[in-house]
Structure formats: C-alpha cells, structure tokens
Amino acid sequence: MADRGVLLWLSGTSEPDVVASLDAAADLQVVRRCADLAELLAAAAAGLGSAAVLGLGRGVDRNRIADLRREGVAVVLVAARADAARATSLGADAVLVEAEGLDQDVVRAVRAVLQARASEGHAVSEGGRDPREEVRAEPDLTVEGAAPVRPREAAVALEGGAVSGVGAGGRVIVVWSAPGSPGRSTVAWNLAAECASLLSAQVAERPSVPERRGTATAPDPETAPDAAVGAVALVDADTFAPSLAQAAALVEDSSAIAALCRAAAQGVLDPSTIRRRRARLPEGVDLFSGLTRADRWREVGGESFGEVIEALRARYRVTVIDVAAGLEQPGLRGVDRWQATRAALGRADDIVVLVAADPIGVRRGVHALADLHETGAPGTRHVVVSKVRQSSAGRAPGEAVAGALRRFAHVEPAAEIPLGSQVDEALLRGIPLLSVAPRGAVRLAVRGLAASLLGVPEALPGRRGARRRIANRRVG
C-alpha cells in the first residue's frame, strides 16, 4: 500500500483524529507519524509514501514543499485561518483551513490529489516516487467543506525549479555564458541601462512597445501599484561572483536578492517588499543587489527565486538577470549551486549567451551551448561574441569567431561587442557606458543588442544619418 501511504506531521489536538480517519479509509494508510520536518523530508526521500499531510509550522516554506514534490509526494498543507492566504502561495497541492471536521477534510483532500495525479497519467512507482518528472501541474480541485485545493502554478521542466514557459507581463532577459570572463556583469549592467534609455525614448512616441510574446509591455496597473512599477529591473543572481552593486558604485549593506527569496519562500513577497529592496539608479534602472558573500548561495533557492522572477516580470517592462556561469548537474540530494541559474534560464524570454573572442572562449562557448540545449530552456538564444579584438582572433576577429561557432555549434552570432578601454573608465566611475562614451564602439554595440531584443529603433537621440545595425538572428 506504499502507493497510497500517507506521511503525517501535524501538531495539536486534531492529529489523533486525522490519523484515525486516514487509517479507517480502505484506500489510505498512515505509514509514518513524523516528529519534525526533517523526519518528514527523510521519509519522503526514502520513498515511504505518496502523500504528505503537514501543518504550516516552523521551517515550512516554498522550498521545503518543493523538496517533497520533487520526491513525487503530493502535499496537503493545513493552516490556521489567519495564515490561509500565505499558505496558498507556497505551492502545495491542497491547502486546508483548520476547522471542525478537519480529519474528514484531510481524507477527502488526500484522495483528491492522488486521484488527480493518477488521472493525468502521473504513474506513481512503489514508494510514491515518479522517475519521469519532478513536479507536475494539477487541475483545480475543490474539497467539500474545506478550503479549495490550490493548483500548482506551472509545470516544472528544468531542475531547480525552472518553469517550462514564460508568464504574462514584462520581458525577462538572462545574460549567461560559459565559465571565464566574457563580461557578463558588464553586458548585463549596460544592457539594462540601454533598455531603460530605449523605452524612455519610446514613451514620447507611443505608450508601450508593440504587444507580442515576450515583448516589453507595460504591467497591468490593477496588479502592479504605481509606486512599484518601473521600466527596467537589473538583478544580480550570480551565486559565485556577484558584482553589480560594486559596478554601480553602491555600498553593499545587505543582499536584496536574498531578502526577496526569503519573502517568496515564506509566501509574503509583495510590492512593498520589492520597493524596499530596490536601489534606484540615475539611469532609470532598479537594481536588486546580489549576495554579499558567495558562500550564502543557499539563500537563493530555485523555487523561491523563480517566484521572485515572476513578481518582477509583473512589475517591470524589462528584467535583466545576471547569473552564474556554466551549469553542473545537481547532487543526489538536491545540493545545487546553479539552481538560481536554472530558474532564470527556465523563465527567460531571451537568453544572451556570451562567447569570448579567443580560442579558449570559443571552445568553452561551444560546450556551454550544448549544455544549454540539454536543459530545454524555452527562451530564444542570442549568441553574442564579446571582447572582439585582432590580437586574440586574427585580422578579421569577428568573422573568425563566427565561422568557428557556425562550424562547431551550428549557431549564428547575433552581435559582436569589441574590446574597448572605455569599459575600464565606466567601471572606475561606477556608471554605464552611455554616460562615459555615448559614441563609443562598445556602447553602440550594446545599444544595438538592446534594440534588437526589444524590437525598437536604435537611433541615438539627436543623431541623424547612419545607424549602427547589428543583426538579430534567432538561434533555435
């Protein structure tokens, strides 16, 4: 009866009645009454049951519920009426409010969620574990006499909580690369500044960018209060080498991204939290600073960071995310330092893949593109060759690198960014290139990339005649 076994962790006077009602049901059986959350997680990992009933106690958050679901265990969460709103935002299969007759409500809820998984072809192996997928989307169910069963927000396709698809709202752009120093943070910082500049210029002509999938459209004012709405958000989600706060000449007193992830994990992420944690930059960009120490990477969980991304998507026309380089498979028990990177890649509308213009950078880039393909990330790839110079790639460096990428990775570069001394000046002064060298080659290349991603004209204000055009080719 392991496929109908129930793991239980409840406190209070209702726990004995719940146990008795579950055991009295012909098709259900309590296989473990857990003393704490750690024992519940261990029992789920051991495959002892296919459903878990737990209270909204200490340590229960979005990440722990996701851990249970990754083991193929359906989750029924019991909360006090005062905590019901927060409980329904944590991703459980069903949420019940503590009330008279809770034991029968639990029986109905467990049957409903197990039936839902079976009806959608979610075959449960012995021990309750599904070897094919980590988490599935459940249909909307209602348990009579209890709080409504809350459906899962979206199906999960990538490890670490990355949703297979993108949500409604603004555009999410992720800047990623192979390990090395191709300039991810520099490109992300300046790309965000250029997006803000381009969108600001568009306001005078029309209220928003033409609407299409992934296009930067204005957030819904009904769901995004005016004080929380901005044009561009810049997020430092690099769990190895966060640096955007320093690049923008800000003092790192605390980590905005860690605070937002904590709020998301507890189900209390709201517009006021986003407003408090942003740092407004003169360029019209709201910066959400990264970790103050790289060894705090566990604070940016994949499930909670995914929720943060969707909250920002709903409130900003464009969200640019700087993530850690590379990808590695997670450990046996979900120890994954790249979980934030996976979450971002899985939710991105556009993935800017940087490839350094030198032999080592090209080799790493080819392998990185293969790794990215294996994740199944749905966003459009834009391969960008960075630090283009003759000294490392020959007399025609751009064409040489493009030829290598065509031959070994079967992709066409979307843009080239040359190596320029103005980048050092911008870093020294803590400002973007548009304020340091507005006519510089590096700045114009990044602006062209931003214009191609947003689908807007790239002409500089006050400039007539020729434009610098950079091809925008979609790489499958």
TrEMBL record:
<dbReference type="GO" id="GO:0051782">
    <property type="term" value="P:negative regulation of cell division"/>
</dbReference>
<dbReference type="GO" id="GO:0009898">
    <property type="term" value="C:cytoplasmic side of plasma membrane"/>
</dbReference>
<dbReference type="GO" id="GO:0016887">
    <property type="term" value="F:ATP hydrolysis activity"/>
</dbReference>
<keyword id="KW-0067">ATP-binding</keyword>
<dbReference type="GO" id="GO:0005829">
    <property type="term" value="C:cytosol"/>
</dbReference>
<dbReference type="GO" id="GO:0005524">
    <property type="term" value="F:ATP binding"/>
</dbReference>
<keyword id="KW-0282">Flagellum</keyword>
<keyword id="KW-0547">Nucleotide-binding</keyword>
<dbReference type="InterPro" id="IPR027417">
    <property type="entry name" value="P-loop_NTPase"/>
</dbReference>
<dbReference type="InterPro" id="IPR050625">
    <property type="entry name" value="ParA/MinD_ATPase"/>
</dbReference>
<protein>
    <submittedName>
        <fullName>MinD-like ATPase involved in chromosome partitioning or flagellar assembly</fullName>
    </submittedName>
</protein>
<keyword id="KW-0969">Cilium</keyword>
<keyword id="KW-0966">Cell projection</keyword>
